[in-house]
User: Fold this.
Amino acid sequence: MTRMTTIGAAQLGPIARTEPRAQVVRRMIALLDRAKDRACKLVVFPELALTTFFPRWFMTDQAEVDAFFEREMPSAETRPLFEAAARHGIGFYLGYAELTPDGRRFNTSILVDDRGTIVGKYRKVHLPGHAEHEPERPWQHLEKRYFEVGDLGFPVWRTMGAVMGMCICNDRRWPETFRVMGLQGVELVLLGYNTPDRNTAGFEPNHLRMFHNDLVLQAGAYQNSTWVVAVAKAGVEEGVGMIGGSCIVQPSGEIVARVSTVGDELVAFDCDLDLARLGKETIFNFARHRRIEHYGAITAQTGATPPPE
Ligand code: ING
Assistant:
């Protein structure tokens, strides 16, 4: 008996700076309704899915920054999303900016089960970009300014019939992210992203944005024998182009479903969770093949130390 479950990648197009959360929630509920038609059991929304990607602007007024954060989840604006999902019997991943009661700020995602209960929370560990204003850039990438490094590690949860983990955007570029979850037996990694389609730190051919997106998702899936569902906030948002490419990757590393637009779009795939078993029991049977006595440098040092000239 295979463990089949249909999963939806619910990509969002641009969100304007002034777009009310209630309007974004209505867009997400429309995608949930389509997910219901496709018999989805789980839907993944993007990173920071409730607002525009505000780290693209340098702001000094904390109240202005905090307007992009959620103080409670669900809130009056987001409760309709939870209610619609529970009505459909669909679980979901939601990325948002979290402002905790004790004043800490994280780039956060939650895992909500098919009854509308929050069963897991993750806080982004790998914060890309910079903390100070860099006016020479065409736009900013101030995640190091607006968020603290996540303090929850890379947990996994056994829920809705699978072992699921979460990460966020830049996390996908670091193999440690997938491996820590792989070492907990993850079968399904959910993630959202906001990835500008140009590198503001220096010239890089644009096609590499999609190449690197696929490369890291496929590697993460294959090397840890897990499904990966990766969902973009896409399109030209406040003048900044963001890649789409939302997709579902199977444990073999093959992309099995992909969006065709850079707008609001749902793609769904019938995932056989047991496809993760072959890799875990053979090629990537960690217990049989890993040699941790040789891996010490990975957690003993942060930067690289090349040999002396
Ligand atoms: N965005 C981008 C990402 O990691 C980035 C930032 C793009 C870093 C390309 C390096 C290269 O996809 C977020 N939000 O992390």
Residues 103 and 136 are 31 Å apart (CA to CA). The mean pLDDT is 98.
